[in-house]
Amino acid sequence: MQPHEPPLFTPAEAAVLTRLPLKAVNNAIDKKTVPTVGARMLNLHGLISLSLERRLVDRFLPELRREVFNALACSRRNVVSLEGGLLKIDLREPRRDLARALRDLRRARQLVVSDSEIMGGDPVFRGTRVPVHLVAGLSAQGESDVNVLASYPRLTPEMVRLAPIYAAAYPRRGRPRKQPWHDRPPVSRTTRKLGTIDLA
């Protein structure tokens, strides 16, 4: 992509940026409610339309929503009046939310590196060997930030906060990798009576 070209976003990135479920984003693209570039990519105008889609979906039919989004594409104002002033749409809040989400996603991308020499190419936090999807998974399971930071001291609070954002925008592809020990027998086995195990 050339520097002067506007950025484009995948449906997964758009879902993260607009806080919509991925299914809702794909639905809006499939029904052509929101404008796309190419087959399924969205530009900033498409993201704003998606942000408004959540607010307008219960009030207007898809055809009218398309009209609204087309009218918004031609306007740079913060408040847009349609239908002779009968309908006013304030774009300040969606634009603020989107700008904040874009900053977080950009920062998450800066903090993550993918190198075939490190953890087999799994995305890890820069300067560590800690996989981003592992941290996101711990957060999704309800693990507190304090516990994650205690377990992985090279991480920062910002990394832990942004891990779920990165993982949702860039989900793992394909089947999970097999661990190296997957087909190997255990190195040793020990049998102990339950009463002899000290749980203190």
Notes on the protein architecture:
InterPro entries: DUF433, Homeodomain-like_sf, WH-like_DNA-bd_sf. Residues 174-200 are annotated as: Disordered. With 200 residues, this protein is mainly α. It folds into two domains: 11-90, Multidrug-efflux Transporter Regulator, Chain: A, Domain 2 (Orthogonal Bundle); 98-169, Arc Repressor Mutant, subunit A. 46% of the residues lie in helices and 6% in strands. It is built from eight helices and four strands. The chain has helices at 11-18, 22-30, 44-56, 62-73, 92-111, 132-140, 145-151, 157-169; strands spanning 79-82, 87-90, 112-113, 124-125. The protein has a two-stranded antiparallel ribbon. It has a two-stranded antiparallel ribbon with strand order 3-4. A hairpin with a 4-residue loop joins strand 1 and strand 2 (87-90). Helix 3 packs antiparallel against helix 4. The longest helix is centred in the middle third of the chain and has 20 residues, at 92-111. The radius of gyration is 23 Å and the shape is elongated. The model has no long low-confidence stretch (mean pLDDT 80).
Radius of gyration: 23 Å
Task: Tell me the series of helices and strands, N- to C-terminal.
Answer: HHHHEEHEEHHH
**Tally of individual domains:** 2
Query: Which strand order spans the largest sheet, edge to edge or round the barrel?
Result: 1-2
Oligomer: single chain
CATH architecture of the largest domain: Orthogonal Bundle
Structural class assignment: mainly alpha
Keywords, separated by commas or semicolons:
single chain; about 200 residues; mainly alpha; Multidrug-efflux Transporter Regulator, Chain: A, Domain 2; Arc Repressor Mutant, subunit A; 2 domains; two-stranded antiparallel ribbon; 8 helices; DUF433; Homeodomain-like_sf; WH-like_DNA-bd_sf
